[in-house]
Amino acid sequence: MNCSADTHAAAAGGEGAADSGGDCGDDGDGGGGAAPTGDDANNGQRTRPTVKPELAAKPCPIGAPLVVTIVGLPCRGKSLAAHKVARHLNWRGHSAKVFNVESAATADTLREISLFFKEGNNVAIIDGMHLTRQSRQLLATFCSEKVFHHLLIEFSCTDKCLRENIDDTVAFYHNLDQNVDWERRLRESNELHSALFEACSPLEGPLITVNNSEDARLHSITARGVLGAIQTAILGVLAIPVIRHRTFYLSRHGESDYNVLGRIGGNADLSPRGMKYAERLARQLGGPGSAPDCPKPKLIWTSELRRTIRTVQNIPGPRTAIKDLNEIDAGICEGLTYEEIQERFPQEFAWRDQDKFKYRYPHGESYLDLLQRVDSVVQALLANTDVLVVSHQAVLRCIMAYFKGTRPDDVPYINVPLHTLLIVRSYGYDFEVETVPLKVECVDTYRIQPKNCSTTRTTADALTTVPAHFDAPIAQPPPAMVASSQATTTIS
Question: What residues are labeled active site?
């Protein structure tokens, strides 16, 4: 089966063969109907072969872009879910965008989407109401003619969820214009559009229906005709209730003995300064010495490694050690310093600098592997609030990439310093990140990409961006020194 030259390029991780809408058109004459190529007997000139219209080459549907049409009445949680889906797909390496329309897509919207796909992107989410079958048929015809995949997502919600959504929307618009009765306007809009609403039919195409609720017992989802990796991923994202107001606390473990020595991986214990950070973090989050009004996490998640477990030992709350939060597996490089890796495996060290996101340690993991591993953790986070996650540099880079909207190739260079609490708060469609240094001295483990990543580079060039570290563990200071060091505010 040959695909024509007009085949839509598949973006990384795009729709698989299961999304195919049929066979691709052949580049040739299909075995009949074409005049033979050769010199014309009458004029001696070469003529082009003719092809029957029904056998003309068509774009191949395998890997074609996906158009997602959002359907539903106002205040049903459509926009929040649309942006949540786009954020997740972009985090996983796709290229998705939300197209906002007032009620339904127009010809201008379709032209924008066509241009968006021509630029190499692969998922367009049209956030509107699309209440009538006629408005949805326009999109179905467009996708059929262009050979794009099409997915309908219809939203409803519980009465309690509707009241809360209206209250949130009224509060938002009231800040913009206090002279308008926004609650009345929204209720009248709901009544007007309810009379026009025609529910989606499975015969219209692949369909996901969502009944929104923050209560997992009431939140429900059904799917018909969903095919391929992207559509299945969207189904998984929508299956998790959307909590509108969320707060998460993220931190690396306290400084470890391996951090002090510049060694990666391993299962080292906390250094004396790391233990001090654990005490300071507990004071910040409801532990001994904390203020009465300080935040108190409802859940505490750590990795299985001792340095994260020791970091939260004085923080009250139910805790779970999660394997998926373990640090990236450095394989044959576990426990080595960067200097030792350069000495023993200089080619591996250079390859990792060339593409840090996709490079996989021999017998270990890559950031690409890690992103897939922490997917379940991120989805679980979004179904909760007031969660403290204490993990490791590479893992938290992958998690922070979701909240920051960081593209995959930039994930390995997100700076997540030691002895710093990151507070993530939801803000409408987006998230705000507050950085709170807890003022306990520590080493700096951040390494930028060196300019020279060649496998033939010198050792000096390879090590030029390696952060400074100690050659021996830091000794436990005497009590007098501990007391005097509490005034230290230096942060690496």
Answer: 127, 157, 253, 327
